[in-house]
Specification:
1484 residues, mainly beta, six-stranded antiparallel sheet, five-stranded mixed sheet, 13% helix, extended
Length: 1484
């Protein structure tokens, strides 16, 4: 019993411990599930990153089992592959991924943290369940039970069994081996077939744990949606993955694969996408127009139309070029915009610093910034909508910029970088089209590190080959490259820089990319990682020569398999064939890239090469040498292309075909050149090589003869030029017209129907000669055969189909014809019933078309409806709307009905597209609208010219229209009021090349109206001119002036006097011909050249002149010039009579005398005066024609001035200028001054009267200078008052100065007094008061009105001045009344001892001062010895009765009142005579 009891107690104790542990474990599990990041999960999935050497310890369990445990991990432990929990117990084993395979499974190692957390939580839950089950299995109970207890326990065991089954199922689910499972596609990809231009989406659902990584592939090539966002969109949500392919084209037909990968394995799903074209019969291009389909998203079918298209464009390098189109998307849906994509040579363009795109909602613009030849190509605008797309393409040519040196080559193009490594890159480029005046000798390659502006030349010797390996790069740095061409003349401009490249290992670059590089292979290798540090690398393998030219050789190899953890570098060795002397090439520094370029090899010799690896451990064995390589160019020049064949295209372009070069490797492309026949100058047609053997050469001169040739180019250089083509004339090609459109029923009767249609938009380059109509019957769904209705071509766009059966349905189609042939059939009309109409209103107008398209106006024309209704048509209404607007956008272009069959619609917006329709009206009402015309872009075409009116010299009035885009078969068609001119009696049409002239035979009111001219076989070139009554009158006036012309005079006839008294009579005509003649007439007498008269006529300037030596009495009368110039005439006259003639005669005689005077010494300028800024008065004159011998003398008051006179010092001469400096002027200087000139040629004198009026004039000028020198008025305050003053340069006693206050003259008084001190003018205001406030004016006489200076003595100026005055006045009063000693006291007093001293000082002060005395700075008091007195308030005295030596010292008389204190000091020296004598004896 005791033994069984012990066993029972032991089991009970174990059960209690187990329950406690279970509760604790349950609490641990609950708290653990509430945490998002557990330390166990982190340890279990991250311990493989660390390793350590750990000590083993053994611990016994409750059952006595020994469990091995490890010591704690050190901080810097080496990597271990054991997974442990927080108690450092081993719970699993982590399989390492070998580093060589790290790139393959990199995505597994970079699993997201939340995925790791989920895996850790699930694993802990599983482990805890496993521990509880194990402990339950260890519990054994041995007790003696009754039958009742046994039954109860049996039932409990059954319940426990069921619980265990449930837990077992849970364990299966929570077991790590069952929880982690490989990816599995729940829903696989499904293949799809779509129309081209549509969008397709592939869907699938993937299950797996850990969460698998997915990647999409197209034909086993990774799809990168970030690199092509406009094409692909990838989404992943809740294990559902999708790939959206936008705007599918033919090249999107492929096999698409999705690969899912996690640590348990890989799975993939494949689907095929087939993109079908709409028309199988026609081979469509990648950007061809596709049909529009219904868009269920918006419930409409979008129709995109591109109008206002850009033409073939030409630009020069360095310029900025913009291309633009107007896009109309109908119908307009709010907040919906189409996708606009630009392409160059079918490659989408991405915005960059060179390419800018803009979409305004209606206008798409592409701007090419700083054009380069790389920008040349076919540009395509593609507008994608939900229903389809529309495209438009045109070529852009980029011409070379002007070379810096004439004859130098132009810049290379298309610089690219290949095979980028750590310190090596291959740069390639394309040769330019123009080599210059001599062949290209080679190329220089420059490099620039990104972030700097320094370009370094990579090669010292120019390379001929268009491919060059650049070495010496620094790993991790970014570079750009450029290339320059060289010939005998010089260097070209540099090319456009390449794209930025980073010098780095290709494997590192791959590692930086997201996602795997290839589809999953289904195999992962796991192995232990062995330490390989400090191992000498193995030798490289697969060393090959990838490139070999006469300039360089490029080697490539594979890195060794054994290379350790650190990187390896390489040494390259070379050996001349036949020798065994291997030389190391890069002795200074090993290279890091498995590529190397060798230079400076001997051309023609054979070499072998090998490579060695090296690291810190040492240098490897050499690799297997390469095969022998002969140094030389391996790539030959291409052979010449076949002879070109040309075909006409447009008025400015030609299509050129040629045979491909037969012997060519690595063809870059072809350059096409053209030359005008006879010029022998070849011009490139393209500056970017093309690979196809067909090219359209644009920019040619219409009507010129050209020949063409082609040359091929590859990296080695240019081929020989092909033979020249045959001569071709640049003219537009003629083709069959487009098909007519809009076949409609205009009228129906019992047995006939009237049909109408619209002429084809493309006439094929020739006039439409006619139309053919076909018909067939329709019975239900059964249609009959087509039959011709007319065998003769119809000239109109309507036709009356007769002999039809009533109540039978018919279908019709129309074909157009020109000289090239018959077009395709139009779209078949709807079934039309031959049944008589009972409609009362007119039918729809037909034949709508436009002319004269301008920015703000368009002329719309139409033909009347075939069916007028019950009454004739009496007017029309034109409706207009913007093409992008809905049906509600229609509006009437006018209010009243228009009776004409044309109308000019104005008020349009430039650059906006419009559509038009016309409705006819009769008495019954307005009929149905016509078919819509348009869209038409309101935009004036470049080089558009208008009709202008010309009146020739014969007075003939004509209208002229010019066209520079004439094509073969183009004609000028004139019309009046937009109807053909049938009456040739009114106009005569004359056409010469690109100009047509409509001449009015007899202009009259019958010619009023609108005249228009259309150029056929062009894109609607037309213009009009409206002749109004007012305009006709003006033209008739001009015509009359031209028929009877009058020679216009620029200057009327006039006369002038010349030197010697010569008389010149002249005039000038505006224009004349060389045949113009002049008749000179005086009083009806014809004059001719002779001794008295001289005539001149300069026909180039139109100046007519007649000269006379002098005017005599007989010359009084009328002078006339009569001109005749062909049929033009002109007359002008000059009348010289009476007083006017006498005055001119006197002037003539005076001029004669003046000429005689000037033959000797004379005065150029007579004696006059001037006043200097310093107010000195100068008498001056200027002489001419003087010599050294000429005597010049001055006199004053008829008395000559001798050299010894004082006035002689005032005379100066400088060249021809004579001056007499009077100085400061006064009345004593008045008098008469004369200057005499005298020599053997003659004499002259000049006098200046400096008296009376002359004196006054000088004084007035002096006053003017003084007045203008006056400064602005300033203010000065004194103790007496305020002074206003102004400074002048000089003051003269006769100068009048007036002071005014408030514009009133100030009277002189003792209080307000003006005056002058030196050169200062002042006004003193003594004891100023408030009345003295105001604006003061100083008026200085300047000889005329006077000069004024102002000062506003108010406000702050007055307050400041007045305060200063009061302050100074108070100070003066204080100074005047302060106490002071004014005299009576000596400075020093010497007195004999024993004598009496009496000193009296005079003092002053108001009030009377207080007086005190001091001795040696100490006060003295009056007593028996010192008697101090102050009498009458003026006299202060001091008396010392008997002085002693002690009385010597410094005394002071101190006076003091309220204004101040002053001390009068003196020194008293008392001496003893005996002492003085004793001192004298001692000195003796």
């Amino acid at each position: 019993m005791s033994e069984s009891l012990q066993v029972a107690l032991k089991q009970q104790k174990q059960l209690q411990q187990h329950q406690k542990q279970e509760k604790k474990q349950h609490h641990y599990e609950s708290s653990y599930h509430l945490s998002t990041k557990s330390s166990v999960s982190k340890q279990s999935f991250s311990t493989y990153k660390t390793t350590s050497h750990r000590l083993k310890t053994s611990v016994k369990t409750e059952k006595g089992q020994e469990v091995v445990k490890l010591s704690p991990l050190p901080k810097r432990a080496r990597r271990t592959y054991l997974a442990m929990d927080t108690d450092k117990e081993v719970i699993g084993y982590v399989i390492p991924v070998f580093r060589a395979d790290h790139d393959v499974v990199r995505s597994l190692a970079e699993a997201r943290e939340e995925d790791v957390t989920e895996e850790g939580i699930n694993y802990v839950a599983m482990r805890n369940l496993f521990v509880r089950e194990a402990r339950e299995a260890l519990d054994v109970k041995v007790v003696k039970k009754s039958r009742t207890v046994q039954y109860r326990e049996s039932m409990e065991r059954m319940e426990l069994s069921r619980t265990l089954d449930v837990r077992a199922e849970l364990r299966k689910k929570m077991n790590p081996d069952n929880l982690n499972h490989p990816p599995e596609f729940v829903i696989k990809l499904r293949g799809q077939t779509v129309w081209e231009g549509k969008t397709v989406t592939l869907h699938c659902t993937v299950a797996g744990w850990p969460k698998p990584k997915v990647a999409w592939y197209k034909n086993n090539v990774l799809i990168d949606p970030k690199a092509h966002p406009e094409k692909y969109t990838v989404e992943s949500n809740y294990n559902m993955h999708s790939l959206e392919i936008k705007n599918c084209n033919f090249f999107d037909t492929a096999q698409y694969c999705i690969s899912a990968l996690n640590v348990k394995g890989e799975a993939s799903s494949v689907a095929t996408v087939v993109v079908k074209r709409f028309q199988d019969a026609e081979e469509a291009g990648a950007l061809d127009l596709k049909p529009h389909g219904f868009c269920p998203e918006h419930g409409v079918t979008f129709n995109a139309t591109i109008i206002g298209k850009f033409e073939v464009a030409f630009g020069y390098e360095g310029e900025t070029l913009s291309l633009g189109c107007t896009v109309i998307v109908y119908p307009t849906v709010k907040k919906y915009q189409p996708e606009v994509v630009w392409y160059r040579n079918s490659v989408p363009l991405k915005p960059s610093k060179w390419v800018h795109t803009h979409w305004s909602g209606e206008h798409a613009t592409l701007t090419l910034v700083h054009l380069n030849k790389e920008d040349e190509g076919m540009y395509t605008l593609r507008v994608n909508t939900k229903s389809g797309f529309d495209t438009y393409s045109a070529y852009v040519f980029v011409r070379d910029a002007d070379v810096e040196v004439e004859g130098a080559p132009v810049a290379p193009l298309d610089v690219r970088c290949h095979d980028v490594n750590k310190d090596y890159v291959v740069v390639t480029w394309k040769q330019p089209a123009v080599e210059g005046s001599s062949p290209i000798l080679g190329y220089y390659i420059d490099r620039c590190e990104v972030g700097t502006h320094h370009w370094a030349q990579c090669n010292d010797v120019p390379v001929k080959y268009a491919r060059f390996p650049v070495t010496g790069l620094v790993e991790g740095r970014s570079y750009v490259f450029r290339v320059r061409a060289l010939n005998k003349v010089g260097l070209s401009r540099p090319s456009r820089v390449s794209e930025v490249v980073v010098a780095m290992d290709p494997s590192d670059r791959v590692r930086l990319r997201a996602g795997p590089l290839a589809p999953w292979t289904g195999m992962i290798k796991f192995t232990e990682e062995d330490p390989t540090g400090g191992v000498v690398p193995g030798e490289p393998t697969d060393v090959v020569v990838t490139e070999a030219t006469k300039s360089y050789v490029v080697l490539a190899w594979k890195p060794p398999v054994q290379r350790g953890h650190e990187g390896v570098m390489y040494y390259i060795e070379k050996c001349i064939s036949g020798e065994d002397n291997w030389q190391r090439v890069n002795t200074g520094m090993p290279v890091r890239s498995p590529r190397f370029a060798l230079f400076d090899l001997a051309e023609g010799k054979s070499y072998s090469f090998r490579v060695r690896c090296c690291n810190s451990a040492g240098v490897s064995e050499a690799s297997v040498p390469t095969e022998e390589t002969i140094i030389g160019d391996k790539l030959d020049l291409p052979s010449a292309p076949g002879a070109p064949v040309t075909a006409r295209n447009t008025a400015t372009s030609v299509v050129v075909f040629w045979g491909a070069s037969k012997e060519v490797k690595h063809l870059v492309g072809y350059y096409i050149e053209c030359s005008v026949v006879g010029s022998n100058v070849w011009t490139p047609c393209n500056n970017k090589p093309v690979k196809q053997t067909r090219f359209v050469c644009h920019g040619l001169t219409t009507g010129a003869n050209y020949v063409f040739r082609v040359k091929a180019v590859n990296a080695a250089g240019y081929s020989q030029s092909s033979p020249s083509s045959e001569t071709v004339v640049v003219q537009p090609a003629i083709s069959v017209p487009g098909n007519p459109t809009g076949v409609t029923l205009l009228e129906a009767v019992k047995d006939y129907m009237v049909l109408g249609w619209t002429a084809p938009a493309n006439s094929g380059g020739a006039d439409i000669r006619g139309y053919f109509v076909d018909y067939r019957t329709v019975k239900g769904n059964v249609v009959g055969k087509w039959h011709e209705m007319n065998q003769k071509a119809l000239t109109a766009t309507s036709y009356k189909a007769e002999n039809l059966k009533e109540n039978v349905f018919y279908q019709f189609q129309v074909r157009a014809m020109n000289m090239a042939g018959v077009s395709k059939d139009s779209v078949t009309s709807a079934p039309l019933e031959c049944k008589e109409w009972t409609i009362t209103v007119p039918g729809a107008p037909v034949g709508l078309h436009v002319l004269e398209v301008r920015d703000t106006s368009i002329v719309v024309l139409w033909e009347p409806p075939a069916f007028d209704g019950r009454t004739p048509v009496n007017g029309y209404y034109v409706d207009v709307k913007e093409a992008s607007a809905g049906e509600e956008g229609w509006k009437a272009a006018h209010e009243k009905a228009n009776r004409m069959k044309y109308m000019k619609v104005t008020g349009l917006k430039p650059g906006t597209a419009y559509v038009f329709r016309v409705r006819a009206q009769n008495l019954a009402g307005v009929g149905k609208p016509s078919a819509v015309l348009g869209p038409i872009l309101a935009q004036t075409a470049p080089d558009t010219k208008e009709i202008y009116v010309d009146v020739d010299d014969d007075g003939v009035i004509s209208m002229v229209f010019e066209c520079s885009e004439m094509k073969a078969g183009s004609e000028f068609v004139w019309s009046k009021n937009y109807q053909a001119i049938t009456d040739n009696s009114r106009l005569t049409i004359v056409t010469e090349k690109g100009k047509s002239r409509a001449i009015f035979n007899d202009p009259s009111l019958e010619d009023l109206g609108t005249f228009s001219c259309v150029v056929t076989n062009t894109e609607g070139i037309s213009s009009s001119y409206t002749l109004t009554e007012e305009g006709l009158k003006r033209l008739l006036e001009i015509s009359h002036d031209h028929k009877f012309p009058v020679i216009p005079f620029k200057h009327e006839m006039s006369m002038e006097l010349l030197e010697k008294g010569l008389v010149r009579i002249w005039t000038q005509v505006e224009k004349c011909t060389s045949a113009c003649e002049v008749e000179y007439v005086f009083n009806d007498t014809i004059l001719s050249s002779g001794s008295k008269y001289t005539m001149k006529f300069d026909k180039s300037t139109g100046i007519i002149e007649m000269f006379m030596d002098s005017l005599e009495v007989t010359d009084e009368g009328t002078f006339t010039f009569n001109l005749v110039d062909g049929k033009a005439k002109g007359t002008t006259s000059l009348v010289l009579i009476g007083d006017e003639f006498k005055e001119l005669q006197k002037k003539s005689q005076f001029e004669r005398a003046e000429w005689v005077r000037k033959q000797g010494p004379h005065f150029v300028e007579y004696l006059d005066f001037a006043v200097t800024p310093e107010c000195d008065v100068l008498l001056k004159c200027k002489v001419g024609n003087v010599k050294k011998e000429t005597e010049i003398t001055w006199s004053r008051n008829s008395i000559g001035i001798a050299d010894s006179d004082e006035d002689a010092k005032k005379i100066q001469r400088k060249d021809s200028d004579l001056t007499f400096n009077i100085g400061k002027m006064s009345k004593k200087d008045a008098g008469t001054y004369e200057v005499f000139l005298r020599d053997d040629r003659g004499r002259d004198n000049s006098t200046f009267n400096l008296t009376d009026s002359g004196y006054q004039a000088v004084m007035n000028e002096l006053f003017r200078v003084i007045a203008n020198s006056a400064t602005e008025i300033k203010v000065l305050s004194t103790e007496h008052g305020i002074i206003l003053y102004s400074d002048v340069t000089y003051y003269h006693e006769d100068l009048r100065v007036v002071w005014l206050l408030k514009d009133a003259k100030l009277p002189a008084s003792e209080r307000v007094k003006p005056g002058v001190t030196g050169d200062q003018l002042w006004l003193k205001i003594n004891e100023p008061t408030e009345k003295d406030r105001g604006r003061y004016t100083m008026d200085i006489f300047d000889g005329k009105a006077g000069i004024k200076r102002f000062f506003d003595l108010t406000g702050p100026a007055w307050e400041a001045a007045f305060e200063e005055f009061k302050k100074l006045k108070a100070a003066a009063i204080a100074e005047r009344n302060r106490a002071r000693v004014i005299g009576g006291l000596p400075d020093v007093v010497a007195i004999q001892e024993g004598k009496s001293l009496n000193l009296t000082g005079n003092v002053w002060g108001d009030p009377a001062p207080e007086v005190s005395w001091k001795k040696n700075e100490k006060p003295l008091v009056s007593d028996d010895r010192y008697k101090l007195k102050f009498e009458q308030g003026k006299y202060a005295s001091i008396t010392i009765t008997t002085v002693t030596t002690t009385d010597s010292g410094k005394y002071a008389l101190v006076v003091k009142n309220k204004y101040g204190t002053e001390a009068g000091e003196f020194t008293v020296s008392v001496y003893n005579p005996e002492d003085e004598e004793n001192k004298g004896d001692k000195k003796d």
